[in-house]
Amino acid sequence: MASLTIRKLDDALKKRLRLRAAQNGRSMEDEARTILRRAAGEDVRAEAQAGKRRGARRSTTEQPEPAPGAGGKRALLIIGGGIAAYKSLDLIRRLRERGAAVRCILTAAAQQFITPLAAGALAGGRVFTDLFDAATELDVGHIRLARETDLVIVAPATADLMAKMAGGHADDLATAVLLATDRPVLIAPAMNPHMWEHAATRRNLVQLAADGVSVIGPNAGEMAEAGEAGTGRMAEPLEIVAAAWTFLGVAGGDQVLAGARVVVTSGPTHEPIDPVRYIANRSSGKQGHAIAAAAAAAGAEVTLVSGPVTLPDPVGVRTIRVETAQDMLAAVTKALPADVGVFAAAVADWRVEKPTASKIKKQDGGTPKLGLVENPDILATVARRNSGRPKLVVGFAAETDHLIEHAREKLKRKGCDWIVANDVSAGSGVMGGDRNTVHLVTADSVESWPPQSKEAVARALVARIGAALAGAPR
Ligand SMILES: Cc1cc2nc3c(=O)[nH]c(=O)nc-3n(C[C@H](O)[C@H](O)[C@H](O)COP(=O)(O)O)c2cc1C
Fold first, then answer.
1. Average of pLDDT values for 267-272?
2. pLDDT at 112
3. Are residues 283 and 240 in the same domain?
């Protein structure tokens, strides 16, 4: 090809060419050649060959849009500055193993824990670190990074990164991308248990959930710091991949409930006494929410009917929030038909017969008499339906004594298929805690599972449900 003299082009044309070249990550000369080739009707192969030659000369800043992986999906992984950053290297591998193309952003703090070189080697491409890097901005730019993906994953999501996200900060590449993206965002928090429990982090979590951010974990267990244990460990890479897959909607993981409809109840109910007071119980909703999340990760279409809890809505789950047992029954009935019903909510047995419309005043020398009436039995109502009964109905029994005996009796009385029995006596730490020791009670067997996190109980239960639906013996 004859040499091109860009200098001799008129100014308006030069300006347009410069813009196009910048947008396509090419030199002005290369851009002009591309335009001429296309005009001359050369085929796509010539363009690809030119691309290869360009690639050989390409500066390290050039970065084409990631081709979707074999699974046809792209993930943008933002790695924050926490000790769990090393697990995110494995996360990159796991995502790519399942066919997703992965782009990575490392915050400045993340680079204190892992290197862009390691992340880039595993991702198979350049890693992005700077907002104010002229080459990056001209080439890919934070807006393209924010858009050229199907899902943004933040792992580890540090307390600081969560606070910045909740506050809408955008003073580095990670936060600017998070503010600019219109794609689903999944965060995997990881931090010291005290940081996780801190009122500021709780506030930020509630804000992020309200902003539509999905959360996976953190799990309970030993922390990296010697002698520290509690909730704050980042979810395991495979758990994050399973949650990510509910967004990416591609086959992978153990999709044991693919195509199944599942209804789960979770949390306590609040039964009003007057406009400001109510009867409640100590259920946190952690077990029920974990089951809903695990069922969604296993490919089910999940409706979660939740009483008042402070937990974020699980990833990929339709969550309906209710207050009272009567509301919960109405929402469950509306969510049917389903293949499976898992009733993990701690529904109040009684409600106040006549809640007052105005606040009950303290009276000298007397206490108000609260007349109680029985609440509807949601588990029994669903289990005994003549038409539209789920194929598998699983109840929970929270007992303080004679656990198995009471669970067996409950199984019969309610007409359900399985009971998951757990000891909630004072000191067991189950109510509101992160671990659970359960017994799976069926018509003809009792299986005692080892103490484990509520997420692990949820995964094990979902695996059993999957096997039951597939025809394995219950
Ligand atoms: C050794 C070490 C480990 C840390 N681990 C965590 C952690 O696990 N989670 C966290 O939220 N912050 C952790 N921090 C504090 C963060 O690094 C710090 O808040 C940083 O500003 C977070 O940056 P980011 O917003 O880019 O994630 C750790 C700090 C040090 C020195």
1. 97
2. 98
3. no
- Check residue 23 and give its pLDDT: 55
60 belongs to a structural domain = no
C-beta 162 within 6 A of ligand 1:
no
CA distances (Å), origin 201, targets 156, 167, 286, 289, 362: 15, 12, 18, 20, 37
Domain count, the chain: 2
Least confident of 24-28, 185-189, 309-313, 337-341: 24-28
Find, among 381, 391, 394, the residue nearest to 442 by Cα.
Answer: 394
Pocket test of ligand 1: the residue of 83, 208, 225 to mutate, having most ligand atoms within 8 Å of its CB, is: 83
CATH value at residue 418: 3.40.50.10300
Considering the domain architecture, whether residues 280 and 142 belong to the same structural domain is answered as no
The whole-number pLDDT of residue 27 equals 67
| Nearest residue (CA) to ligand 1, atom 14 | 82
Is ligand 1 within 6 A of the CB of residue 195?
yes
What one-character DSSP code corresponds to residue 384?
T
* CA-224 nearest atom, ligand 1: 8
Q: What is the CA 218 to chain-centroid distance, rounded?
A: 11
Q: Residue 41's CB: how many other CB atoms inside 10 A?
A: 7
Q: Which atom of ligand 1 is least distant from the CA of 107?
A: 26
Residues taking part in catalysis: 281
Residue 53 and residue 47: Cα distance in Å, rounded? 10
Q: Quick one: 284 and 167 in the same domain?
A: no
Return the ligand 1 atom nearest residue 159 CA: 11
How many helices (DSSP H) and strands (DSSP E) are in the chain?
17, 22
